[in-house]
Amino acid sequence: MIFGVKIRFDFFKLLILAVVVTAISSCATAPLPVSQGPATDIIYKPYGTAARQDISHIIGPAETVYRISRMYDVPIDTILKANNIADPKELRIGQKLVIPQAASLRPVIPVFRSSKWRYIVIHHSVTDSGDAQSLDLIHRRRGFDRGLGYHFVIDNGTSTRIDGQIEASPRWIKQSDGAHCNTGGMNECGIGICLVGDFTNEEPSRKQMDSLVLLVNTLRKFYHISLSRVIRHKDVPGKNTACPGDSFPWKEFKDRVKSGR
Ligand SMILES: [Zn+2]
């Protein structure tokens, strides 16, 4: 009887090993959400240098009072009181919040322990303006029932967002597959980052590029992604697209990522 239990235990261990080996040998067979616990927020120095002041903030996709409190360095209770909110779960996307004595907005990049992510894929929105909320609407109208297909959006200073602002999407917070590149298994193992703008003829803003370098290197370091696996949408075999646009400064960007500046 004891022997039987031992055999089953070893078989179980082998089964787990087989699942792990399969998971790391192919994008297509990677298991679905492998989020292992809460996010670790990596917080960088603010985008600007404004003194503390009362501001209003439009709630974007995946933003919670907790996340907003970290973005502006204001306690959760202060935000709840200032807006007469009894239950933080009542918040909805697009709602305007008063943030008393907000510090200059800071990039807050949540990361989750995971073996799922092995590529970073760069896109442009092919819109002159927008943010995570407006791109979420566009994707829903296109039939993506889980909304915004990217994992991160880097804004260009339109739609109430700051130039270079990094927004983490609900798919990233849930560690779900993307809907940004349907070939090469990239939706399953590629982190999709979209810069707002149309870079067919124009380049991204300097601040967008600074934020992209910061975000890509943060993700590369945390998920051990090599430079060669930071790719453009158009680099994915089988894709007939110019994304992220012919004017995107790819070589300059890769040099900056490599040097870390
Ligand atoms: Zn694209």
Descriptive report:
- Helices cover 33% and strands 18% of the residues.
- With 261 residues, the chain is α/β, with parallel strands linked by helices.
- It has two domains: 49-104, Roll (Membrane-bound Lytic Murein Transglycosylase D, Chain A), CATH 3.10.350.10; 113-259, 3-Layer(aba) Sandwich (Lysozyme-like).
- A hairpin with a 6-residue loop joins strand 6 and strand 7 (163-168).
- The protein binds zinc ion (ZN).
Secondary-structure map with pairings?
Blueprint: H1 2-25, E1 40-43, E2 53-58, H2 65-72, H3 76-82, E3 96-102, E4 108-111, E5 119-124, H4 132-141, E6 152-156, E7 163-168, H5 170-173, H6 186-189, E8 190-195, H7 206-223, E9 230-232, H8 250-259
Parallel strand pairs: 5-8, 5-9, 6-8
Antiparallel strand pairs: 1-4, 2-3, 6-7
Summary tags:
261 residues, alpha/beta, Membrane-bound Lytic Murein Transglycosylase D, Chain A, Lysozyme-like, 2 domains, globular, binds zinc ion
